[in-house]
Amino acid sequence: MASDAVEDMGAGRRARGLDRAFEILDYLRGLRRPARPNEIAVGIEAPKSTTYELVGLMLKAGVLEYADKEGRVFLGRKLYFFGLAYQSQFDLTRECRSYLDELAETTRETSQLCMLDGNKYTVAMMCEGARPFRISSDVGEQIPIPWTASGRLLVSHMSDDEILAFIPKEDFVLPSGARLNPKTFLAEVHKARKDGFFSFDSLADNFTHCFAAPVYQGEGICAATLCLIAPREDAARNHARYRDALSAAARSLSEKACSLPISGLRAGVV
User: Fold this and answer.
1) pLDDT at 258
2) Greatest pairwise CA separation for the chain in angstroms
3) Orientation of helix 48-61 relative to helix 37-44, angle to 10°
4) How far apart are CA 197 and CA 144, in angstroms?
5) Which among 35, 52, 96, 143 is least buried, having the fewest CB atoms inside 10 angstroms?
6) What integer pLDDT is reported at residue 205 of this predicted model?
7) Residue 254 three-state SS
8) Is domain 2-80 in CATH 1.10.3720.10, yes or no?
9) pLDDT value of position 242
10) Which residues make up the CATH 3.30.450.40 domain(s) of the chain?
11) Separation CA 112–CA 127 (nearest Å)
12) CATH number of 90-264
């Protein structure tokens, strides 16, 4: 019995250590720059001794690398190779590229594949449109769900209570500093669910309009969205054409997505 208890304690420590390691990776990813272990410890609210030990182990494994002579560390190249191995089995990535290319070519607007990453929205893939200026979000950047057109669709399979529990309260504060009423957001989720589409003038800037159509997989779950980002004037002039092109592409991709395992499609788990 005593040996079983010791084994359980050891397993618990290893599990906590693994959780902390992923917290370090997530922290650096969100920070998007190298940091010293001391800064990481403060950022993830972990004991400094534990953080230093885990950083050392991750450096040896190549998951982290030194970024400068000041002791700052950042994500290591081994993660890149992990990503390549994942992508080789990630069927949606291969399927989606042709859809993004075709949407960007036919509309001349920036097209995107968007997903949940935990309780945040992220752009997973992007194809820039044929414009002299760039309209896009950085691939992999985490953005609050209420700021995005896609966000209304990505949580549309959830109940109102589940949505409010899932989205951090601070994420309803918009880039302008104004607070979006959660009831307004829920009403927009209901509309997006009913219409199978959502678009609005971007809340992140004053120049663009965002279109989003759901990619469904299994029992009405919106596992991803196809999106178009267009200047507001062009979006108003071509709204019906962009909506129809985007919706048709999303329906076609949904048919293919239904043959993929759920774990192979979703970046975030609700």
Assistant:
1) 66
2) 73
3) 120
4) 19
5) 52
6) 74
7) helix
8) no
9) 96
10) 90-264
11) 6
12) 3.30.450.40
